[in-house]
């Protein structure tokens, strides 16, 4: 990302006033589908851009992991939003959200098979052909693994990144959630990923429910996630890390404390 090292936050209309008042903010991420392709951007985003804050469009509906080819209109929208916001890159998920004409309404995990690698790489290539900027790919948090998996998570991600040349959007909370639910070591995964390819990080809170750890985006960041963030940044500090919050927003003081905790774990300047 062409921006100084620093901390960002997911821009949401509910906290736009709070975000606008953060003096040391380096970047924000906005859900691409919430921005009209023809503009104007939502209130507040243009002002952030004009003061030098990088705005990154984050897609949630491309369904890059679907068996069907990615829809050109969705790629065109993401491209138009990137141009509208002068974004240095865009991001999307290694997941699928529709199949057979049905919309899941959720990000669903792919089977980690060679066939799935072929399908997702083909869709990424289709998207890259029509995007004006690089794309960063985010592995999702998953509550289950498919029974016919042929690759472990690191091998699956590495093959996709190698074949597509894409960047990596690494969600530290997702890494923690998946490792906790699978009973594996999250640090062992970090040691097998190309951390030099990380465009930026996500950090979010979660909670234990029904015997599983859920990446909720509505709970405070736990100590274990912050410790994993610090472990990652000790290995390779990425350009930026951002706080994800979606609903149940706490008072401004608590949000500032979370942002400062992310900054401290990464060794970045505080934004507040």
TrEMBL record:
Pfam families: MbnB_TglH_ChrH (PF05114). It comes from the Bacteria. This is DUF692 domain-containing protein. It comes from Micromonospora lutea.
